[in-house]
Amino acid sequence: MSIAHTAEHVFMGSLKRLVPNIEVKKVEIEGEKGVVIVSSKYLDWQIIFEAEKMTNKVIDEAKEIKEHFFDSLEDAKKAFPSLRAYEERIKGKTRVIEVDGYDYSACRAEHAKNTKECLFFIVTKFSKAGKNLFKIEFYVGENAKMKALEITKICVEVAEIVGATLDTLKRTIQNLKDDFLKIRKRLALLSEKEAEDIEFIEKNGIKTYLKIFDGLDNKKLMEKAGELMKEKNNIIVFVNRDEKAFLILGRSPNLNLDCNAILKEVAIKFNGKGGGKPEFASGVVDNDKVEDVLDFVKTKIQAF
Predict the structure, then answer these.
(1) In this predicted model, what pLDDT tens digit does every residue of 156-195 receive, in sequence order?
(2) The predicted structure's pLDDT at residue 5
(3) Which CATH number is associated with domain 196-303?
(4) pLDDT value, residue 217
(5) How far apart are CA 11 and CA 59, in angstroms?
(6) In the chain, where do the E strands start and end?
(7) How many angstroms separate the CA atoms of 218 and 207, rounded?
(8) From CA 272, how far away is CA 245, in angstroms rounded?
(9) Which residues contact 153 (CB under 8 A, 6 or more apart)?
(10) Is the CATH code 3.40.50.1820 the one for domain 2-156?
């Protein structure tokens, strides 16, 4: 735990050189793993990477870790103008941890005697944690080395899967993502066109729109169901088969069919999930149960 605290100080000292206004809001350390929440208007992976390089350079330099004690935070700041401190939590006597000329931070935690003990530092996760807040997960020591090897292994395997080298992996993944978004957009258009003209069965003045789609856009189908629900005497049953079968059940406001109750029965009977309101409900079931589910729903509609 002491090496993780020390590495966090070095890392934040490095980030502070790259982003002067960055501030630590919270630090959690467990063994050789740590999480730090920072406040900054901007932060990205390139900045994180540069700070990682600077941190590991300082670790290799075996800088001495020094303790300083002051009667107050004000006295500490006079001695070390660049002092990092979570001022809201500090009252009275103040302990300052110095990473030999590199970083000065008010801290009560246990630390290593010099940076070399940290061995290695790596950031494994980086994400937004709120407005101007970022969450950074890191490892130090032998665990950091193992994480670096694991990440390298994954990158090499992914590069092989997508037919790229490590140098071209990022660009290749970005191209694949762009292609996927284009295909998704085209699929949405196809969904919209296919949902335009849907045949219905009419009985006793009530129209039932029932159709099975394959891999189309759920949002567009829900929009189409919503349009049909605005008209009188309509019941809508759509199924969209993808990884799971997405079931949509809706009806016009003037009808008393309880779509939510039917979907709950489907979920129980066919081991699915779903629910909603009496006028509209949706859920998912396994693809191999679609025909049985539709037969069940048809029976409920006919009984209505």
Answers:
(1) 999 999 999 999 999 999 999 999 888 877 776 776 666 6
(2) 92
(3) 3.10.310.40
(4) 80
(5) 10
(6) 23-30, 33-39, 65-70, 94-99, 103-106, 121-130, 133-140, 200-203, 206-214, 234-241, 245-251, 273-277, 280-285
(7) 22
(8) 10
(9) none
(10) no
With beta carbons less than 8 A apart as the criterion, state whether 213 and 240 touch. Answer: yes
Mean pLDDT, the chain, rounded, equals 91
Residues 6+ apart with CB under 8 A from 92: 71, 72
Range(s) within the chain of domains with CATH label 3.30.980.10: 2-156
- First-to-last CA distance in the chain? 66
- According to DSSP, the residues that pair with 284 across neighbouring strands are 246, 273
Q: Residues spanned by CATH 3.10.310.40 within the chain?
A: 196-303
Residue in this structure with the two tokens 């665990």, named with its chain if needed: 143
What radius of gyration do the chain's Cα atoms show? 30
Beta carbons of 133 and 41 less than 8 angstroms apart: no
Interhelix angle 290-303/259-269, nearest 10 degrees: 140
Report the DSSP pairing between strands 23-30 and 200-203: unpaired
Beta bridge partners of 67: 97
Q: Tell me the CA distances in angstroms from 85 to 7, 25, 65, 98, one per residue in order.
A: 16, 10, 17, 12
Question: Which two structure tokens, joined as six digits, stand for 57?
Answer: 């350079």
